[in-house]
Every structure is written in C-alpha cells, then in structure tokens.
Amino acid sequence: MTTFATYSPSIRPTGFDALLILVGRRLVSTGERLAREHARYSEAVLAHDERRRDLAAARHSGLWP
Predict the structure, then answer these.
(1) Which of 21, 25, 40, 64 lies most in the core, judged by the most C-beta atoms within 10 Å?
(2) Buried (b) or exposed (e) across 5-33, using 16+ Cβ within 10 A?
(3) How far apart are the C-alpha atoms of 27 and 31, rounded to whole Å?
(4) For the whole model, what pTM was predicted?
C-alpha cells in the first residue's frame, strides 16, 4: 500500500491494482456496515435486558400492580 501513497493524484491505478483497491474498499465498507449493525443490535439487547431486570425487581419488591 505504500506504493499507492506515493502516486501523484493524476495517476490512477489500472488492471489488477484497480481491482485490488476496489475489493479493499468494498471489504472496508462492508465491515463498517456490519460493525454499525452489531452496535445497534447490542444497544437494543442491553435496553431489553434492563427493562426485564427492572420489571423483575418491581415484581420482587411488591410494587407490581
């Protein structure tokens, strides 16, 4: 990857180099998307667990209606 960093902006990679760059960008964007989805799912699971714990505590304490 050091080679690409030394290219001037007017030179664009072609052929196999361009394919590798395209695949790398796709992999990075897919990884970022999966990480966002995982973080969102983890937050939902934690919120659900907190609600269940609060309801269980309310039932246990006798505050349940």
Answers:
(1) 21
(2) eeeeeeeeeeeeeeeeeeeeeeeeeeeee
(3) 6
(4) 0.54
